[in-house]
Amino acid sequence: MEQIRLDKYLADSGIGSRSQVKQYIKKRQVSVNGAFITSGDIKIHPQTDVVQFQGQTIAREPYVYYMLNKPAGSVSATIDNTCPTVLSFIHDTTHSDLFPVGRLDKDTEGLLLITNDGDLAHRLLSPKKHVDKTYYVEVDSEIPKTAISTFALGMNIGEEKSTLPASLELLSSNRAYLTIQEGKFHQVKRMFHGVGCEVTYLKRIRMGSLELDTSLSPGDYRPLTKEELAALSK
Ligand code: URA
């Protein structure tokens, strides 16, 4: 879980400017988990540490959840020297601990959850949970009908284990929806490669119960609704 400097945390929570906060700390008006602190340099866990100012507990930094329609050309990382990161689209200066839940390739578009809730991310990404992910796929040639059973049975994509059963819904000769239960590196591209097709366009449209909001253009985002969050947290 991401840590944050105590003085930044206090200033972000609105009790005063960074320099005012430093004075409060000097005057022993701030405690963390019951112990008075004398330096703002220390780092705290904003979700679990109890921070008090003049005896009043400062509300814990709430978790936030954003649905981003990731544009092609962006990278699923928090920092990158050459490309825009998926976080660069999120205009939230209050939460310094946001991260993307899982990764989409640089050229993949679509649904990416951005949050600071490590537990939820862990649950969604755990290989044991088999959270379904649905992709809209376009490929360079005709998808063989046999791909439906090949994907359903699980296939060898050069890993130790075969892929778990995946469901392919053909939309036309070279367009389909594919639902997979895992998130192996380049999985969709490697599965199609295995049946003789190269992916030319890939977009994630669903992750578990969460569906990409079709009103979001690439690069747009919005907070999850209460209903979406409740369904995802189940
Ligand atoms: N599978 C891929 O090949 N790429 C992605 O970005 C996601 C799934």
Overall radius of gyration: 22 Å
Q: Number of folding domains? A: 2
Helix fraction, binned, reads 10-25%
**In percent terms, what proportion of residues is strand?**
25-35%
Describe the sheet with the most strands: 9 strands, mixed
Assigned CATH superfamily of the largest domain: Pseudouridine synthase
Question: Architecture of the largest domain in CATH?
Answer: 2-Layer Sandwich
Unreliable spans are none
Number of helices: 6
Structure description:
This protein has 234 residues and is an alpha+beta fold. The protein has 2 domains: 4-57, RNA-binding S4 domain (Structural Genomics Hypothetical 15.5 Kd Protein In mrcA-pckA Intergenic Region, Chain A), CATH 3.10.290; 65-233, 2-Layer Sandwich (Pseudouridine synthase). Helices cover 21% and strands 26% of the residues. The chain has 6 helices and 15 strands. It has helices spanning 6-12, 18-26, 118-125, 146-153, 187-194, 226-233, and strands spanning 4-5, 30-32, 35-36, 43-44, 51-53, 56-57, 65-70, 99-100, 109-115, 133-139, 167-172, 175-180, 199-207, 210-211, 221-223. The strands form 3 sheets. Strands 7, 8, 9, 10, 11, 12, 13, 14 and 15 form a 9-stranded mixed sheet that branches. Strands 3-2-5-6 form a 4-stranded antiparallel sheet, with no helix packed on it. It has a two-stranded antiparallel ribbon with strand order 1-4. A hairpin with a 2-residue loop joins β2 (30-32) and β3 (35-36). α1 crosses α2 (18-26). The longest helix is centred in the first third of the chain and has 9 residues, at 18-26. It is elongated and about 75 Å long. The chain starts with a strand and ends with a helix. The model has no long low-confidence stretch (mean pLDDT 93). The site of uracil (URA) has 8 residues, from α5.
